[in-house]
Amino acid sequence: MRSTLEAPPRPPDPMLPGMGLVMVSRDLYEDELARRGAPRASRRPRGRRKGVRRGLAVAVALVLVSSAVGAAVLATRDARREIHALRDRVAVLRAELAGALERAEGAEAHAADLAARIEELRARVAELRRAKVRTVVRTETETVTVTETVYVPNGRDVSVEVTGYEGMVRIYDVRLTHAYGYSDLIGIAENTSGRVISYAQLGCSFLDRDGRLLATSMDNKQDWRPGQTWGFVCSAEVDATGGILRVDELS
Fold first, then answer.
1. What distance in Å separates the CA atoms of residue 73 and residue 79, rounded to the nearest whole number?
2. Mean pLDDT, the chain, whole residue set
3. How, if at all, do strands 242-250 and 158-161 pair?
């Protein structure tokens, strides 16, 4: 029978079938070995098994201890790094604090300077009050004249005469305007004669409210091509309220 770790091997039972022959053969084998002087086979002691178990337990314990030591070493390195980082941060904060203190001292000095200047100004104001100084403010008024151009529609206070030149010229959009002390008759004339007019002249009369003549003027054009328009302007240094535009010459 094979031995196990739980219990030592038992001797064969002679009452079992065939076990008697096994025991006789074993006894004969041992007697033969004794006669020849050979040592009998001995069983392994149980203490050796316990030693193996203890060795395994010790090895496992060493592995666990090594792991714990490695973890402790890593934790120590991390702690040292954090300590160095904290030291650097503390140094930066100290430098910032020193700068803030320096700026605060400068601000206090500036505030003291301002307070001294304010006191000086107050003293000067008090001195002026005692001297009873009176300030006189003079205001100058500037008058600005704005010139506005007023258009009088054609046919109202303005008349156009083309007697003798019907069909040769067309005059429209005539207006009476005022600017810078002048009265102007402006409008558009178109050559409808179908030929080139070498010389054209328009005459203007400026009237007051009662229809009295204030001034006359004229405008002319040369080489006036057929179908071409002409923007004419007649001016006089009067304040007219009406006007007459007429065709004086077409040649």
1. 10
2. 77
3. parallel
